[in-house]
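A quick aside before the break. I want you to see a complete sequence-to-structure record at least once, exactly as it would be stored in a machine-readable document. Don't worry about memorizing anything.
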Amino acid sequence: MTGLHVLRAGEGPTLLLLHGIGSSATAWSKQFERLEGDFTCIAPDLPGYGDSPDPQGATLDALVTDVADVLQGAAAHVIGVSFGALTTLALARSRPDLVKSMVLSDATLGRATLSWEDRERWLQHREALSQELATRSIERAAEIAGRNAPVSVIEEIATHMRRARPIGYRTVARVIAETDARPWLRAIGVPALILCGDDDRVTGMNVSQVLLEELPDATLRAIADAGHAPHIEQPDRFAEAVRDFIGKLDP
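That is the input. The structure line, written in tokens, reads:
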């Protein structure tokens, strides 16, 4: 049994929902409301986030092991936003038996392709931010959301962000800095839906296009009027896309 704190609701085919670097399991609350009538929704706090224990290892493999333990050997449709999408890809790579399909929203593929200097600058920025999540959460949430997002959406993103603890945030930042998922993509044959907010200023549509071109079985759908967190900004459109995609695979 995993030590991760998990939110769980609903009944039906299992959805495993994975949050990003500046978020937590509660960020899936709007999707729980919309999907739990048809699916079993499971959302863990990643290590060092929310009510989960501190990370035991600062590697992507260690995080994937913790996430895999949540499923206890049962396959699921896995949905990840931002770093959650990278974790989803890593899970499908190492444990394809656990992944029926992937929904990859506003993904990052890692930053290992950057120069050493650029990665160090990025890590230093994230290190500083990890210590200031409580005081800078509104500022950072405004950068994550689309430019036309209402104040209520920005405040909601900030609320989930404040559940991240510095050790969890720093661990994920190091993993992102050390990872390049591009070489894995052609070998991941799991059906994939790629979602991206049309006003995502964090990772953007370019990464989603790479996924579309490299994954063997992928489709791409833009979410209108959303930034880097369409599951919160446009929850109805996000849930509709998920339901349509999974409904064709798992009636």
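Two observations worth writing down. The mean pLDDT is 96. The CA atoms of residues 198 and 224 lie 5 Å apart. We'll return to this after the break.
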